[in-house]
Amino acid sequence: MSDLWAALCLVAVLEGLVLFAFPDAFKRMAEQMQSMEARQLRAAGAIVLAAGVVALYLVRRLA
User: Fold this and answer.
1) What is the DSSP letter of 22?
2) How confident is the model over 15-28, as pLDDT tens digits?
């Protein structure tokens, strides 16, 4: 369970880092996302999700 909390904390750190370091780029990205169809956002989310699962598997397997 502590691994789950650690992972969620890392997500917060990474999201905060993006907002801190690149606020204008984040605003532009959010505006572009508003114009995208839900289907496109779901596809992008599925790709990122799959890449994350594969990366997590590889990290756990190789560590």
Assistant:
1) -
2) 999 999 999 999 99
Q: What is the pTM of this model?
A: 0.72
Query: What is the spatial distance between Cα 63 and Cα 59, in angstroms, rounded to a whole number?
Result: 6
Residue keyed to tokens 């370091």: 21
Residue 1 has what pLDDT?
A: 81
Rounded to whole angstroms, the Cα distance separating 23 from 8 reads 21
Cα Rg for the chain, rounded, in angstroms?
15
Query: In three state form, how does the secondary structure of 4-40 look?
Result: HHHHHHHHHHHHHHHHHHCHHHHHHHHHHHHHCCHHH
